[in-house]
Specification:
This protein is of the alpha/beta class. The chain has two domains: 181 residues, 3-Layer(aba) Sandwich (Rossmann fold); 129 residues, 3-Layer(aba) Sandwich (Rossmann fold), CATH 3.40.50. 36% of the residues lie in helices and 20% in strands. The strands form three sheets. A seven-stranded mixed sheet has the order 3-2-4-5-7-6-12, with helices on both faces. A five-stranded mixed sheet has the order 9-11-10-13-14, sandwiched between helices. Strands 1-8 form a two-stranded antiparallel ribbon. Helix 8 crosses helix 12. The chain is globular, with a radius of gyration of 20 Å. The protein starts with a strand and ends with a helix. The mean pLDDT is 97.
Length: 327
């Protein structure tokens, strides 16, 4: 299979889906001739034209509102929010309208919309270009929240999200766009939403992550293998719906659990995973559940040294796993 970047897999997934289905339209700021600030839509305006690749004003609430209206009238809109930090003006449309349309209409209407947004730090983006907001939306029934960790899953999950009949938030770590490369099949394929994957089998400690942090977890597992600690690494892939069963099955084997993510540790996705495991597999645990996440601070610092303290990396995860293994 060809090796592609994370960004190329997103681009190819959009292009393949649009070629297959004329009802798919893209909306977003600078996604037309410019191809988006990261290049995810490069060339799509030239191929599909301004009626299907729509440059919008800088008005996220209006972008999502228009997309919801289109979705209710036979289209399948894919919205690009330039950075996830700018999604907040659209929260009312996402939470009050898109997430509730099927419920409030007694299943008469549905909302097949995908909202793509780059998230995360490590690019010196400071306050308004570094946030991780997946836990905020994971509290909302009616939404699906997807966070791919590698190029293969990014493309497959994007195809699945576009085909879904309900709203999907699709978060892409901006530091992964050109950094991560992997084998990606040519042509459309789907990766199921709500199904975690064991990326690395192991026997001693279960490490659960998603997004870019999953790559840090795999790097930490390789380092720890040289010290005699065998980690099982699970990629959640989507945080809503959450695949608790795969995590519980792993914990029943290893007896130890660490959850790591870039979003805030307090009330993050890891809190829900920990609670679910405690409910279903408490007596299979040989040590307390541990969580790693961002400090409970208002924003990621701009200063590069402080940013690195704020962020997780393989060394952070390795230290925590080592302590857990020795408990």
């Amino acid at each position: 299979m060809p090796v592609k970047t994370y960004l190329a897999s997103i681009h190819d997934g959009l292009e393949e889906a649009m070629a297959q289905d004329p009802t798919i339209v893209l909306l977003g700021e600078d996604i037309g001739p410019r191809g988006g600030v990261f290049g995810a839509t490069a060339g799509l305006f030239a191929r599909f034209g301004p009626d299907r690749v729509i440059d919008t004003p800088l008005a996220e609430g209006a972008i999502v509102g228009v997309a919801i209206g289109m979705a209710m009238n036979g289209f399948r809109p894919v919205v690009e929010i330039q950075f996830v930090d700018f999604i907040l003006p659209a929260v009312d449309q996402i939470v009050s309208e898109a997430a509730k349309i099927r419920y409030r209409s007694n299943n008469d209407f549905h909302c097949p919309i995908v909202i793509r947004a780059p998230y995360g730090g490590g690019v010196h983006g400071a306050l308004y270009h570094s946030q991780s907001l997946e836990a905020m939306f994971a509290h909302v029934p009616g939404l699906k929240v997807v966070v791919p960790s590698d190029p293969h899953d990014a493309k497959g999950l994007l195809h699945t999200a576009i085909a879904d009949e309900d709203p999907v938030l699709f978060f892409e770590h901006k530091a992964a766009y050109r950094r991560l490369k992997g084998e990606v099949p040519d042509g459309p394929y789907e990766v199921p939403i709500g199904q975690a994957e064991v990326k690395r089998p192991g026997r001693d400690v279960t490490v659960v992550a998603y997004g870019l942090v999953l790559q840090h977890a795999l790097a930490a597992a390789e380092e720890l293998a040289g010290r005699g600690i065998d980690c099982e690494v699970i990629d959640l892939r989507s945080v809503l719906p959450l695949d608790v069963a795969t995590v519980v099955a792993s914990v029943r084997k290893t007896g130890r659990l660490l959850i790591a993510h870039e979003d805030h540790r307090i009330l993050g996705v890891g809190s829900e995973v920990a609670a679910a495991v405690a409910e279903e597999a408490l007596f299979d645990l040989d040590a307390p559940i541990r969580r790693l996440g961002a400090p409970f601070a208002p924003a990621m610092p701009y200063n590069p040294a402080q940013e690195q303290v704020f962020l997780l990396d393989a060394a952070h995860i390795a230290r925590e796993v080592e302590a857990l293994a020795q408990f």
